[in-house]
Amino acid sequence: MSEDKTAAEQIDARIAALDDWRGATLAKVRAIIHAADPEVEETWKWRGVPVWEHAGIICTGETYKAAVKLTFAKGASLGDPSGLFNSSLDGNVRRAIDIHEGEAIDEAALTALIREAVAANLAKPARAKK
Predict the structure, then answer these.
(1) Distance (Å, rounded) from C-alpha 90 to C-alpha 10?
(2) pLDDT at position 1, please?
(3) What residues form DSSP beta bridges with 44?
(4) In Å, how far are 39, 102, 126 from 66, measured between CA atoms?
(5) 7-122 fold
(6) What separation, in Å, do the N-terminal and C-terminal C-alpha atoms of the chain show?
(7) Which residues does the UniProt record annotate as the domain YdhG-like (predicted)?
(8) CB–CB of 34/90 below 8 Å?
(9) pLDDT tens digits along 56-81
(10) Using one digit for the tens of pLDDT, what is the confidence trace for 14-72?
(11) pLDDT for residue 126
(12) Helix axes 107-123, 21-36, angle to 10 degrees
């Protein structure tokens, strides 16, 4: 995708290019993220990965043939009472949610997880300036 497009435009183009359940799922989680955190910033990193940030990375939205994967940068430190995390469970820091075709998204639980990730980012200690 063109480097002169904004991150939002690149994400729009990715969603449009995925003219199947993956595009619809990515669009839905994007809407949930924006509703959960109206101050979220969209970025486009690592050769084509949508990233949502607020005081640091909240999560990424990768698309694969069989899943849309939301990887939470600090997922291992977040509470997950609804059990949304179902992938990357052995990692020390990250945790992911793989959403497969036909699966319902628990919007309330995902909203809570996003808000917790933002709170964790905002609570991180400031780095000392050298």
Answers:
(1) 31
(2) 45
(3) 50
(4) 30, 11, 39
(5) Aspartate Aminotransferase, domain 1 (3.90.1150)
(6) 37
(7) 23-118
(8) no
(9) 999 999 999 999 999 999 999 999 99
(10) 999 999 999 999 999 999 999 999 999 999 998 899 999 999 999 999 999 999 999 99
(11) 60
(12) 50
**Domain spans of the chain, in order of start:** 7-122
Tokens 């997922």 -> residue: 75
Which residue has tokens 């955190």?
37
Q: Which residue has 């729009």 as its token pair?
A: 12
Beta-strand pair 57-63/49-53: antiparallel
- pTM for the whole structure: 0.90
Q: What is the pLDDT of residue 47?
A: 85
Token pair for residue 106?
């628990």
3-state secondary structure the chain: CCCCCCHHHHHHHHHHHCCCHHHHHHHHHHHHHHHHCCCCEEEEECCCEEEEECCCEEEEEEECCCCEEEEECCHHHCCCCCCCCCECCCCCCCEEEEECCCCCCCHHHHHHHHHHHHHHHHHCCCCCCC
Tokens of 104: 């319902």
